[in-house]
Amino acid sequence: MTIENILRRKGTDVTTIAPDASIKRAADWLRAKNIGALVVTSENSVLGLISEREIVHAFSRYGQTAGSMLVKEIMQCGVATVSPDESVNRVMKLMTHHRVRHMPVLRGGKLAGIVSIGDVVKDRLEDLELETKILRDVYNAAR
Asked: Under a CB-based contact definition with an 8 Å cutoff, are residues 127 and 61 in contact?
């Protein structure tokens, strides 16, 4: 199973934000869209990622003034990205290795989607359920 399969199912819409936007605006977008991360872009280039984690850390560290800080001040830079043809298992390993919950998907250097750990786990569970059903059917047929 590849990331392309996940994108086909969930769609390729990605909510992006400019690096000069406020952290408050980023938090508002996350709440409004009910998502966990925004891809930070400028002129169609991926610069980084800002997630709930960075926002919580900023408010914990800087208090209320964090809301007026800029996304570029707290965003994750140099984020790991994946291509649509990456296997789901490989992406699970990358997420674990990099300790991230979201990964932008790039196709030919352009943003093509985003996958979350929830997307990956859901896909893996569906695979395991199918494997279990097949094994059950084979077992029952052999009896």
From this structure: no
